[in-house]
Amino acid sequence: MNISERITEQNVNVADTNVVRINDNVIKGFHARFGQPKADGTRLVSYYFFYRVGGRNGRQINYFMGNSKSMDAGLARRIALQIEPHIAAGKDILKMKFESEKKDIRFKDFWRYLGEEFIQNKYKNSDEICRQFQHYILPQIGAIHLSKLSARLIKLRIIDPLLQENKTSLTRTLLNFINKILQYAASLDYIPALPILVIDGLTPCIKSKEMTTLPILTGAQIKGVYYRANSSSDKSVYLFTLKLQILTGQSLAIICRTYRQDIKGNKWLLRDRNGKLNGRSLPIDGPLKVLLKQGVKDFSRPQSLYLIPGKGSRAKDDKSMDPKSLAKHQKKFINEIHGIALSMSQLLKDIKQAMLQVGVSPLVVAYLFHQKVESYLQLSTDDPLIASGLDTWYHG
């Protein structure tokens, strides 16, 4: 039996056993629900606030406020009085709670309040994508807190079962959309950025059903290469550029196209492969500052524009050092240390992986390695996160 009266501690205590619900006759939507009688005759009382979002035909919500284990009717009423003006103003209390508890948000809650709308605004085929989320993703990881999501968990609960059914194409698609949602969550500070690119990096491995890509050189081995090059008495250009690559992740092509004038104060202005400045720069600090200062002294020439001029360069025939020649010597040096024939592109991949492992933000890694990210995730050239990320790498 449902009755309508003021919800007070006294009215709750004297309610007949036939009463299963009391609707407050003053605060619209506030109500108490009674459980089954226990052996001692008491009943659990749960307090709710019912409201709609979006008008008469909008979504109906029963907001759970608490029960008699944690509050009495008086406290529930005071909370209801605080909620009432927000409801009258058209606000969603459940969403307000969601936004105030960023650290404890579950994946399905983020999807419900922000993720689904993000997909609908971003993709033309959003209905199909949302259906895939509802069918393949939310039942598997929806109840997990965003902060506890990891590549391993996604692999075990979503990727592995789909690959066992030979649904490779669908797996790649789902992984891409999970990554987009997590990127969006990171941009709003709901999670750290770390899981994003790690998960993105799993995508190329789907064909072989291997969900982890092991680097050829580990972070410790890269560190060993740097210290061997740094302690060498041989002041060769290839050792200088090798150390530059390890410290910054820049390719030989970019390093060789650098002008002396690009080293300005505490910034290194970067150029694209076409030789034009691309608007990006790296902060010069710590070991990078020492290395560039020594490099300018040892290898630059007054008659050349380039930081590392090619042999025999003259003012009328100015050219940079050949990256292929440097790569040949670098590969030989690394092979002598670790016995590994390593390409320079693989070296950069290993450096990128090592940066992520020591805790450098994936957004910084994306900036250093010139990776494309969504516009709202792009770092500006003066972002302090870049200097912080490089400092983490230098000390890692």
Describe this structure in words.
The chain has 396 residues and is an alpha+beta fold. It folds into three domains: 2-100; 104-208, DNA polymerase, domain 1; 219-395, hpI Integrase, Chain A (Orthogonal Bundle), CATH 1.10.443.10. The chain contains 16 helices and eight strands. A five-stranded mixed β-sheet has the order 1-2-3-4-5, with helices on one face. It is elongated, with a radius of gyration of 30 Å.
Q: In a few lines, what is going on in this structure?
A:
The protein is built from 16 helices and eight strands. It has 396 residues and is of the alpha+beta class.
Which strand-content bin applies to the residues? Answer: 5-15%
Order of helices and strands: EHEEEEHHHHHHHHHHEEEHHHHH
Low-confidence sequence ranges: 194-213
Return the domain count: 3
Number of strands: 8
State the end-to-end distance: 67 Å
Using the coordinates shown, work out and report the CATH topology of the largest domain: hpI Integrase, Chain A
Q: What is the name of the CATH superfamily of the largest domain?
A: Intergrase catalytic core
| Helix/sheet category | alpha+beta
CATH architecture title of the largest domain: Orthogonal Bundle
**Overall outline:** elongated
Helix count equals 16
